[in-house]
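Allow me, if you will, to draw on your knowledge of protein folds for a short while. I have a record of one protein: its chain in single-letter code and its fold written as discrete structure tokens. Could you please explain, in whatever detail you think fit, how the structure tokens follow from the sequence? The record follows directly beneath this note:
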Amino acid sequence: MPLALLALALVAFGIGTTEFATMGLLPQIADGVGVSVPHAGNIVSAYALGVVVGAPVLTGIGARIAHKRLLLLLSGLFVVGNVASALAPGFGTLFAARFLAGLPHGALFGVGAVVASRLVAPERAGTAVSRMFLGLTIANIVGVPAGTALGQQLGWRYAYCAVAVIGLVALAALAAFVPHQPRSHQAGIRHELRAMGNRQVAIGLATAVVGFGGFFAVYSYLVPILTHLTGFSESSTTWVLALYGGGMTVGTLIAGPLTDRALRPTLYGGLALLGATLVAFYFTVHSTVPALVTLAVMGAMGALVTTPVQMLLMAKAKNAPTMAAASNHSAFNLANAGGAWLGGLAISAGWGWASPALVGAALAAAGLGLAFLGGFMDRGNGGSDVIASSGTETSTEAGEVTAV
């Protein structure tokens, strides 16, 4: 693996740690800023809002900036946002700081995915992008539990300080190892927005919002589901979440090569298997071992969807892929919000703690329908171009990924 990919994976590791460790530290944060736990939960929404807003806006602002320089600027903003979170004196400033920390999230992943795809031969672009995403899944195994434990023992501010240090190390690694990749003379926000007008890009983003919403419908309520139905104590759910993260890591590892070999079939299979696993979880949740096995598979199938969606968007906006790649992470955060909301509605309606699994299965099925619609509309094109391993965003030297 090129060292540049390791640097990009380290950025993803820091992002995953700061995003998900917050959820485990809400009681400590609430005590620290003098609000209730539900009220403190709004800082999770603040971060997600930052992602949704920042992905297209910062990508558009940086449309003419060389990729490496833009990565360094965005990483610097990520560090500033986490330092501001650690130093926030009250809830209002913490809310603003978490919004600031979320702003570079989507743009970092979007620019990083384009850079990663051009570090290798075209036929291995999906594998390279999945290696960057690997940092995010490993964060769920190592970074989030470690950050949560650090925050619980020393105080939640130390967790954000630790993330800022990770960001600084990643910044140094990016500066040292990522090669310069010049932008085309045509690069600019109008060029990016024109590429975003592609119908396949719109369908791809809708697939991410709806289909991945099925994943978050369960993930958002996983701890109470495990404690109420499976019989785990709250203290033991941390290692169960690590198991879930392990499944996501396996899914990410296999997603890249499968995407390089057959993009759309990988997307179809990932969504279909995610829906089937969610249905299975509805029936296995009451038994410890079957529930754990199903959870690991669910994590793997959720991660299996991420890379083909990312590569599909980059392919369909191939002359200006950065904003499409970044907007994918806005879509994932909308999926997070929408899936959690629908899962919560099912629980509030009295359908039981297991009901989010069926809600998630329905969303995965709807996402699969959108993916099939995109594939049907694309049948006349014969394939999906991937990003060339080198060159500018108007390069015509593209590899091919089997579409159907």
Q: What stands out?
A: Residues 3-401 form a domain with the Growth Hormone; Chain: A; fold (CATH 1.20.1250.20). The two ends are 29 Å apart (CA to CA). Confidence is low (pLDDT under 50) at residues 382-404. The first helix runs from residue 3 to 24.
